[in-house]
Amino acid sequence: MGLVTPFGALEHRASNQRNQAQAAARPARVRFFLDVIGHGEGEARFENDQQLHFATFMLEEPLFTYGFAIIGGDMPIGTLPIASACVLRYHVNDREFYTGADIGVRVRAGTDQVALRFSLIFDGYALRSAYRVADIGEAGI
Fold first, then answer.
1. Torsion, CA 119, CA 31, CA 92, CA 129, rounded to 10
2. Is 61 left (phi over 0), alpha (psi -120 to 50) or beta?
3. Distance CA 41, CA 32 (A)
4. In terms of pLDDT, which residue wins out, 97 or 135?
5. pLDDT number for residue 94
């Protein structure tokens, strides 16, 4: 066994502390944006190859919340959209960590054209901290 320098011992201890800190569960938030543009009513699904990937491992089923904003202008009185988003299924790996989700959105509006921006948020506990914001893209309804 070789001689350990004081600096080497300190670096080794600091490395162990960093590894332990990364292994501790901590709150994590993953957020996605989705623009929905279409003809007043319809649904869109993001499944299989289009599933949402969390880019972290959630230790338990995350809390899912959503909201939406009207893009590009006013809506006439009486035409506000009714919209919802839901988790169709969660993806779980072989270690039972939550890694992603299939999502569905549905919109119904009192106008011929509608443009909404959904904010899809997943809160939970992960082994590493994560604050991911991703733009899913655009869906037609």
1. -160
2. beta
3. 22
4. 97
5. 92
Over its C-alpha atoms, the chain yields an Rg (Å, rounded) of 21
pLDDT digits (tens, 9 = 90+) for 40-63: 789 999 998 889 999 888 999 999
The tens digit of pLDDT for each residue in 97-117 reads: 999 999 999 999 888 888 999
- The residues facing 125 across adjacent strands are 27
Tell me the C-alpha distance between 22 and 16, whole Å.
Answer: 10
- Sequence letter at residue 34: L
Query: Mean per-residue pLDDT for 1-21?
Result: 64
First to last CA, the chain: 68
* Domains, the chain: 26-140 (2.60.40)
Give the total residue count for the chain: 141
Residue ranges of E strands in the chain:
26-38, 41-46, 52-58, 63-70, 82-92, 98-108, 114-126, 131-140
| Residue 96 structure tokens | 């039972």
